[in-house]
Amino acid sequence: MQEEKYLYIRKPIPRRDIDKLTGEAQFIADIEIPGALWMKLVGSPYPHARILEIDTSEAEKVPGVEAVLTGKDFPFKIGHHIRDRDVLARDRALYVGHPVAAVIAETLEAAEKAAELVRVKYEPLPYVLDPLEAMKPDAPLLHPNLGEYEHLPFLYPVPGTNIAHKFKLRKGSIKDGEREADVVVEEEYRLPMLHHSYLEPWGAAARVRSDGTIEIWTSSQGPFAVRTQLAHSLHIPESRIVVHYLYVGGGFGGKSDLFLEYLPVLASMKLNGRPVKLILNREESFYYGFHRAEYILRLKTGARKSDGKIVFHKGEYIYGTGHAADLGSLLGNTIGWLATGPYDIPNVWIDSYTVYTNKPTTTAFRNYTHTELWFAFEQQMDILAERLGMDPVEFRLRNLIKPGASTLPTGQQISEDWGDPEGVLKRAAELIEWGKEPEQPREPWKRRAKAIVMAPKGPSMPPNITTSAIVKMNEDGSVDLLTGVAEIGQGTLNSLAMMVAEELQIPLEKVRVYGIDRDTSNTPYDWETCASRATFAIGQAVLKAVDDLKQQIKQLASQILRVDPSSIEIRDGKAVVKGEPWKALKLEEVAMGYTFPDGHAIHGQLIGRGSWVPRRTTGLDEEGRGHPLEFVTYSAQAVEIEVDILSGRIDILKAVAVADTPFINKILALGQAYGGALMGINVALREEIKFDENGKILNPGFTDYKIARAGDIPKSIIVEFLSTKLLHDAPYGAKGIGEVFLGGWPAAIANALYRAIGVRIKRAPLSPERVVEEIKKQKPDLLENIVKKLGGE
Which of 262, 359, 446, 559 has the smallest C-beta neighbourhood within 10 Å, fewest atoms? Predict the structure, then answer.
């Protein structure tokens, strides 16, 4: 990595969004729309019930109430991938909290009061909360008409069941692999439903203009995705929908899907265009928002003793998607094609199922299925290594893929410029001092141990998504950059500005990137901010736009200076003739074209345009074959932990994360790494949405749903970026890093716990209560001996 050749790239450039600190930044709750009404939702108290009657008469009497809407007002299904969701529950409520009515009033207080007066008669119905139970033939059906639902062609619902989508992948011969294996490990792993825990609760507002245009404000990760999905579901041309960009207080996948936006849009349409605003509070975000699916991963993996090579892997992956699937339906596809991780396994058999349950719905979660898969697969790797009598690192090294030679289970060739998985693993081993046993604490009830895992990220992007950018020169030589990227806290706008300034060799402060002062009617298209794609994809469009601008500058300057365009170079804010630096034009002299002394003008304003679309990816066929990935970011994560056997508490003494990718902005890259690590460690140790036996959430808020705090930061975090290969078409070789640092911590901590006390936990989170419970089950003598020793002392 040659940092010295860049003005800005690879440098720790501070963020420019100071308005977030001054309070000038506007989030959805800050938006004031003249004449706006407030909406409040009424949710079902039952996990599954037939709606017999909704009495809104008392609610309508509350002063200020404009309307009370129910499912009868919206007699159609919504959804982009599969249309399986009601705007408001119609015939049946499908989970506790399922919205059955919406109150619209002049004030929030009036809406809240009226919502309490809506009376609903229900007939409780049998329900199912566990995905395995939901797959049984006699389970209550959430969607009896599943076979009639419109869905995208690469989804395979199973009518007459609760299976929203079944995905399968086949590679080689699983029977041959099973015959060849000397050691076979077969285990089941579970991970619970999680909340995305964004600090800003979800919200949306909408109105219908007098010309029929729908105007929307939303805290979404993808304004253009909102526009597309609304147009698709409501049969409205995209040109009649305008979505405003706002600052978004975190998303992590939880604001990448569409639901909330429908409610104010449809309410405004019912109320002659009056603006309607719906802002969820924290508890409502748990009930009406999206979550991460719950996972049940059944793995069977076999290896040879002679050389330690894995010869087959078989997986059955089951996802509880809640009462509706939509984007959650694709979890099976993603986890399927990454089923073997960074390892070269010749025989693979995967079946994955997206399963409806009577719970809130789910969607993408940061590191889309990877964290969950590594929790299972990387524990599987340690178990196999132990049974083979091999060191876990050596076992992994022996089975790693060979870039340029190996293929994914889908058949896609693994490109050499994706990076060096072996180098990543070896460097992480060095940093954690693998092979050096940790010094044990003096307290006999505490143990320390280390573990290391591989946790690459292969972003899931649709093969037909595109992104565009425009750069335009201003009279003073400054540059405006317009893109459709949604800024959700990651700092992408800063990185894009750095690219423009780098290419034009101008001061960074001369580049203005349009942030929240834009909407989908005046901004180039971008799909959405997800899948570790923002810098990678939008960066390519920006660089193409800048290159287009540079070619125009060179062409114009060559005409003025009467030289060939190839002899012009752009540096120091000027168009300069190579070898003749006295022949130069300041960029501001040509920004609006050029006027010769005789008054003759040429060209006009300089505006560059660029677009990008994935060039490597294809869809997958019914056997899971195809090219799903643009790149992979290889990563390894390692921990040294200390476990208190008496309390079950696990402390992270040292955390190491290594990723094989360069970066654009060092500050932003480290922020993603540290934030991802803390989030992943917390997912491993604390996070879980807890339900009672009737499907009610027991911890719908940050008082009881434990997210990481400053005191939970590990004592030592080491982050290192390698640059073994530069992805040739990525911006300055940089790949996505927004998710990869989340992935391996749950598996690493579980493996370290086993190495410390011999207790294998295959169900997340590894909370103190669960650790103590598993010690009592698996190692009762360990606890008893410590208690006896303490009593003797």
Answer: 559
Judge whether 314 and 349 are in contact, CB under 8 Å.
yes
d(CA 249, CA 260): 16
Domain membership flag for residue 751 = yes
* Span 574-583, pLDDT tens digits: 999 999 999 9
Range of the domain at 541: 3-23+465-612
Element housing 218 (H / E) = strand 214-218
> Whole-prediction pTM value?
0.95
Contact 63, 110 (CB under 8 A): yes
Query: Within this chain, do residues 331 and 452 fall inside the same structural domain, yes or no?
Result: yes
Query: Tens digits of per-residue pLDDT, 594-640?
Result: 989 888 999 999 999 999 998 878 888 888 888 888 889 999 999 99
User: What is the spatial order of strands in the sheet that 580-586 belongs to?
Assistant: 568-571, 574-577, 580-586
Which domain CATH number covers 692? 3.30.365.10
Residue 239 and residue 105 share a domain: yes
What is d(CA 47, CA 45) in angstroms, rounded to the nearest whole number? Answer: 7
Answer yes or no: is 152 within a domain. Answer: no
Same structural domain, 445 and 491: no
Residue 50 falls inside a structural domain: yes
The residue among 420, 338, 318, 293 whose CA lies nearest residue 628 is 338
**DSSP label at residue 151:** B
Q: How confident is the model at residue 4 (pLDDT cuts 50, 70, 90)?
A: low
In the chain, the number of structural domains is 3
**Whether residues 761 and 639 fall in one domain:** yes
Using alpha carbons, list the distances in angstroms from residue 259 to 83, 218, 283, 477.
Answer: 12, 11, 17, 43
Domain presence at residue 474: yes
Q: Strand, coil or helix: what is 56?
A: coil
Q: How many CB atoms lie within 10 A of CB 24?
A: 10
Instruction: Answer whether residue 746 shows pLDDT above 50.
Output: yes
Strand boundaries in 502-634, DSSP class E: 511-513, 568-571, 574-577, 580-586, 594-595, 601-602, 607-612
